[in-house]
Amino acid sequence: MNKLFLALAILLPVLAIGQKKEKPAPKVYNLIIGGYTNAQGGKGITVYRFYAETGRTAYLGEIEAQNPTYLTVSPDGKFVYASSETREGSVSAFSFDYVSGSLKFINKQLTAGANPVHVTIDKDAKNVVASNYGGTMSVLPVNKDGSLGPASQTIKGEGKGAHPQRQTGPHIHSLTFSPDEKYALYADLGADKITIAKYKANKVPAISPEDEVVEKVKPGSGPRHMEFSPNGKFLYLVNELGGTINAYSYSKGKLNLVDSLNMSAPEFTGNAGADIHLTPDGRFLYASNRGTANELLAYAVDPVSGKLTYLQRYPTPTEPRNFVIEPGGRFLILAAQKGNLVQIYKIDKGNGALVAQNNAISIAAPTVLKLVSAE
């Protein structure tokens, strides 16, 4: 008996050391805001401090940039990359001091396509990928100092869709990496498809067209943005033109449609689905709908099937675009472009309900938000 107790006394501390404790979400963030800088727009990229325990904000500063309508942040939080949505598309690199919230321009590179509307970076910070609404997608290598090299690969989209005005040719709208980053999935709004290709960060070209898989969506849907569930088993897609959400099961580069829902009320026409995100625990999904709807929709997620159950729709300021969910699951922060506001919502973790807070940020034409730990 004494030997058993002795064995347990030795083993239990070892087991305790082996257990991984979940790191708590930060209490303080930097909220980075991008948007349009035309006559009705702002100066460029603006940074606020965001306090996750209260939802309060404080202005830190801004830097000039041309139409930085989409942003991505390096995994270590030290660099910000901004797409410039212009006819001669480009991506700019900035160093970022997460303590002070200050940005400094490093360099920029052309995206080999017009109007880049989405930009993302892989987890090893090897490449930034820009999706051009003009129909191409470019891979930009990231140097050790955070600067960008010239495009190492450019992919030209192919095909068209059913919409007579919006789908006369390809419009690549976003790229999402699979959770293991072995695959790159990119949504083509103009050709009604998701293309799935193998991805190797250290290889040139990084995105392999060999053995690519194409997942077609309902004609006229216009796929826009995607997000994987936290467990990586499901992928959710918001369709801009059709105003619908598709839910897929996912495994090793293959998608299987399990659900599709209409975002709008039966009497509404003129859908304009914009963005889609899940809470960190994967229990709730939210999507923004523009057009004349101007709303956020909330859904419950079935953890086994991945299917969605509609919960509630919430009115928003005009033209809700991109939004972020604070990593602790406490707040949802929304950019409303034509409302010239960044609206903050408190999330009820029990039922997913949203409550608008009374401390919206007034800012011209915001379109994209990123949260970076300030701790």
From TrEMBL:
| Region Disordered, residue ranges | 148-174
Q: Which keywords does this chain's UniProt record carry? A: Carbohydrate metabolism, Glucose metabolism
Pfam families xref list: Lactonase
Q: Which family does it belong to?
A: Belongs to the cycloisomerase 2 family.
Q: What is this protein called?
A: Lactonase family protein
**Which species is this record about?**
Mucilaginibacter calamicampi
The organism's taxonomic lineage, starting at the top: Bacteria, Pseudomonadati, Bacteroidota, Sphingobacteriia, Sphingobacteriales
